[in-house]
From TrEMBL:
Cited Gene3D superfamilies: Nucleic acid-binding proteins
Protein name: Small ribosomal subunit protein uS17
InterPro entries: NA-bd_OB-fold (IPR012340), Ribosomal_uS17 (IPR000266), Ribosomal_uS17_bact/chlr (IPR019984), Ribosomal_uS17_CS (IPR019979)
Role noted for this protein: One of the primary rRNA binding proteins, it binds specifically to the 5'-end of 16S ribosomal RNA.
Highest classification ranks of the organism: Bacteria, Pseudomonadati, Pseudomonadota, Betaproteobacteria, Burkholderiales
GO molecular function: rRNA binding; structural constituent of ribosome
Any one GO CC term of the record: cytosolic small ribosomal subunit
Entry's family note: Belongs to the universal ribosomal protein uS17 family.
Keyword entries, A-Z: Ribonucleoprotein, Ribosomal protein, RNA-binding, rRNA-binding
GO terms of biological process kind: translation
Length: 90
């Protein structure tokens, strides 16, 4: 397979940066809505991922797109591909 096909097979997720205190790493919160199997109510499920942030371009509060890749460290296997929206400064 060529590089473009391999690139397309990787999962991508969009979430919000909740922590940027580590060097070259951000914590991204991914929220998705699921239907409760018994009661039918729509509920929010969330999960946090550590993502590689080369150049420290993503800051806390930003909405980013992350892409799955090979393991970079014990907890990191995702990388920030782009900043979708920057945080509003109040």
């Amino acid at each position: 397979m060529n590089d473009q096909v391999k690139q397309a097979l990787r999962r991508t997720l969009v979430g919000k940066v909740v922590s940027d205190k580590m060097d070259k790493t951000v914590t991204v919160l991914i929220e998705h809505r699921v239907k409760h199997p018994l009661y039918g109510k729509i509920i929010m499920r969330s999960k946090k991922y550590h993502a590689h942030n080369e150049g420290n371009q993503a800051k806390a509060g930003d909405t980013v797109e992350i892409q799955e890749g090979r393991p970079i460290s014990k907890t990191k296997a995702w990388s920030v591909t782009r900043v979708v929206q920057t945080a509003q400064i109040v």
